Amino acid sequence: MIHLVIGELSKQYDGKLKCFKLSTDDSPSIATQYGIQSIPTIMIFINFEKKDAVIGAVPKTTLTASVEKFL
After folding, report:
1. What is the per-residue pLDDT across 2-16, written as a single tens digit (0 to 9) for each?
2. Domain named Thioredoxin: which ranges (predicted)?
């Protein structure tokens, strides 16, 4: 499950990365604002600006590569 991978990344990059979970059912306006059409969608923000998005349940290596681009 993707939330387990996100939890691992949060620990791996402690102090460099903050992870947040958002339910599109509970916050449909935010999902619309960011054009989320598929779940899961993982977004990377720097200073509140969206820099990247990974769509779908991808392997940890894919998410790690996305995070590493911005560290």
Report:
1. 999 999 999 999 999
2. 5-68
Tell me which architecture the domain covering 2-68 has in CATH: 3-Layer(aba) Sandwich (3.40)
Prediction pTM value: 0.86
Q: Which residue in the block uniquely carries the two structure tokens 């894919």?
A: 62
CB 55 within 8 A of CB 31: no
C-alpha dihedral sign at 49, 16, 67, 24: negative
Both tokens of residue 65? Answer: 């590569």
Contact 21, 3 (CB under 8 A): yes
**CA–CA gap between residue 38 and residue 54 (Å, rounded):** 10
Q: Please report, for the chain, the start and end positions of each structural domain, with discontinuous segments joined by +.
A: 2-68
